[in-house]
Amino acid sequence: MTAGTPILTAAQMRDAEQALFDAGVDDYGLMEKAGAAAAEIIWRAGGHRDTLLLCGPGNNGGDGFVIARLLRGRGVPVRVAALGTSGTVSSRRALAAWDGPVEDLATAAPATQLVDALFGTGLSRGLDPAVAARLCELTGAASRSYAIDLPSGVETDSGALLSAVPHFGVCIALGALKPAHLLYPAADYVARLVCADIGIPASDRVHRLMPPRLRAPGAADHKYARGLVAVVGGAMTGASLLAAQAAARSGAGMVRRLAADGLRHGADAIVTQDAGTVEALGCSLDDGRLASVLVGPGLGRDAVARARLDMVLGCGHRLVLDADALTLIGIEEIPDGAILTPHEGEFVRLFGDLPGSKIDRARAAAARSGAVIIYKGADSVIAAPDGRVAVASGASHWLSTAGTGDVLAGLVAGRLAVTGDAFAAAGEAVWLHGDAARRAGAAFIADDLLATLPAAIAARL
Ligand SMILES: NC(=O)C1=CN([C@@H]2O[C@H](COP(=O)(O)OP(=O)(O)OC[C@H]3O[C@@H](n4cnc5c(N)ncnc54)[C@H](O)[C@@H]3O)[C@@H](O)[C@H]2O)[C@@H](O)CC1
Ligand SMILES: Nc1ncnc2c1ncn2[C@@H]1O[C@H](COP(=O)(O)OP(=O)(O)O)[C@@H](O)[C@H]1O
Ligand SMILES: [K+]
C-alpha cells in the first residue's frame, strides 16, 4: 500500500518535535517555520483580505503571532485578538516580534478572514463557553476561515468535540495529520485539509489511506493467475450476489458463488455452484486454486449458517469475514491472516467496548485477533496485526445505504485474491469502494457501485 501522510497523536507529535530539538533544531525556529508555512497558504488564497488572528496562550497562539506578523509584512490588514497570556518561551517570543496592537477576544470585531490559533494539540478540556461562543461568532461572520493545526475545541487524538466548534473552510495541519483531522465528529468541521511540512520525520505506522497503484493483467496472465474467488451464499441471496458481482469487477480472474439456493442470478460471468448442503459446500471449497473465500453476506444466523461458517473456517484458504459471519464468530475462532469488515455494531459485539480512539480500537482488535480489521463507517480505519493503520477519509455519505457493505466485502475478497496481501487488499478495496461511490453521485443504490467500479480501477492503473 502506498504510504500516505502520517498521522500522529498529540504525544507522538510532542516526541517528534522533541527529537528535532534534541538534534539541534531551534525551538522558536520551528514555530517560525510553522507560522511561515501557514501564512503562505493563507496569503496565496486570500491576498490582501482583512484578517483577524485569534491567538491562544500556548504554542498554537505563538504560531498565530508569527502568521500575523508575516501577513502584515506582505501588506495584509491584520488584527490580533488574544486569549490569556502567552505562556511558553516560543509564544512569548512570537508575541514580542508582533509589533501591532493586541485586542481583547471578548470585544474584537469580525473580519473577512478569520484565523483560529487559540488551541492546538495542547487542548486539555473544552473551551470556556463564552470563548467557544466568540470563536463560533467570529468564524461565522468571516467569509474565509482557517484553523491552525486543529479547530480549537476538538480533541486531537479521538476527534471528539470538547466544546462548540465552528465549521472552518481550511485546516492547516502542522507537520503531520492528527487523528481528529480524519475521525468523526471532528472531521465534519473542516471543508479542506492541508498539511504543512515543517520537517517532522514521517512515522511508518499510521497513515492516511492513499490512492493505490494497481497492476493491469499481463500477457502471461490467465483467469486462475488473476485470482479465483469463492463467495459463500446463505439464506439471503441478494447479499452474496452483490458481493460476488463486486468481486467479479475487482480485477480478480474468476468468481464462484457457492449458492445455498441453487438460483443462477447476477452476471453470467459468475459461476454458480450448487452448495446447498454443508457437504456440497465442503466439496466446492476443496479446490487448491481458490485464492480467497468470502463468507458472511446473506449467510444467516441459524444453526445451518453456523455449520456453513464452520466448514469455511476449516477450509484453509485466505478468508474475508463480513456481516453474519461476524455475528456468529468468536474472537478465538478468527483464523490468522483473515480480513474482517465490521461496522460499529459488529465491532462492539465482537471485540467489546475497547478504550481509545477509533484508530486505537481498530489496532487493538487487529492485534488481539491476528486479522486485518476494516472498521467501517464514514471514517473507515484499516488496521493490521503488526500495528500498521490506514485511515480513509472523504467517503461519500451516500454510502450509508443497504448493501454497500456487501459490495465492499466482495471487493476485499477480489483484491485479496489478486494481491495475496491482506493489508494491501483491504486498503485497495476501501479506496476503490469510496471512488466508485464518488463516481456514482447522489442517491445511488449498492448495485450502482458495480457499474462505476471498473472506472475506479482504471483510474488507478
Ligand atoms: N512544540 C513546538 O515548538 C511547536 C508547536 N506547534 C504548535 O503548538 C501547538 C501545541 O502547543 P501547546 O502544547 O503549547 O498547546 P496549545 O497551544 O494547544 O495550548 C496549550 C495551552 O492551553 C492551555 N489549555 C488547554 N486547554 C485549555 C482550555 N480549554 N482553556 C484554556 N486553556 C487551555 C494549556 O494549559 C496550555 O497552557 C500545536 O498545535 C502547534 O500549533 C508549532 O508551532 C510547531 C512547533
Ligand atoms: N455516513 C457514511 N459516510 C461514508 N461511508 C459510509 C457511511 N455510512 C456507511 N458507510 C460505508 O458504507 C458501507 C456500509 O456497510 P454496512 O454497514 O455493512 O452495510 P450493509 O450491511 O447494508 O451492506 C461501509 O463501507 C461503510 O464504511
Ligand atoms: K487552532
Automatic annotation (TrEMBL):
Binding site for K(+): 60, 116, 152
Superkingdom of this protein's organism: Bacteria
Keyword Cell inner membrane: no
Any Gene Ontology biological process: nicotinamide nucleotide metabolic process
Domain (YjeF N-terminal) ranges: 13-206
Cofactor: Mg(2+); K(+)
Signal peptide positions (record): none
Reaction catalyzed: (6R)-NADHX = (6S)-NADHX; (6R)-NADPHX = (6S)-NADPHX; (6S)-NADPHX + ADP = AMP + phosphate + NADPH + H(+); (6S)-NADHX + ADP = AMP + phosphate + NADH + H(+)
Chain coiled-coil ranges: none
Assigned EC number: 4.2.1.136, 5.1.99.6
Binding-site residues for (6S)-NADPHX, renumbered to this chain: 59-63, 120-126, 149, 239, 298, 343, 406
CDD domains, A to Z: YXKO-related (cd01171)
Keywords assigned by UniProt, alphabetized: ATP-binding, Isomerase, Lyase, Metal-binding, Multifunctional enzyme, NAD, NADP, Nucleotide-binding, Potassium
Record's cofactor remark: Binds 1 potassium ion per subunit.
Positions that bind AMP: 376-380, 405
UniProt-listed Gene3D superfamilies: 3.40.1190.20, YjeF N-terminal domain
GO MF, any single term: NAD(P)HX epimerase activity
HAMAP family: NADHX_dehydratase (MF_01965), NADHX_epimerase (MF_01966)
Function: Bifunctional enzyme that catalyzes the epimerization of the S- and R-forms of NAD(P)HX and the dehydration of the S-form of NAD(P)HX at the expense of ADP, which is converted to AMP. This allows the repair of both epimers of NAD(P)HX, a damaged form of NAD(P)H that is a result of enzymatic or heat-dependent hydration.
Family statement drawn from the similarity comment of this UniProt entry: Belongs to the NnrE/AIBP family. Belongs to the NnrD/CARKD family.
Protein known as: Bifunctional NAD(P)H-hydrate repair enzyme
Gene source species: Sphingobium indicum BiD32
Gene that this polypeptide is encoded by: nnrE
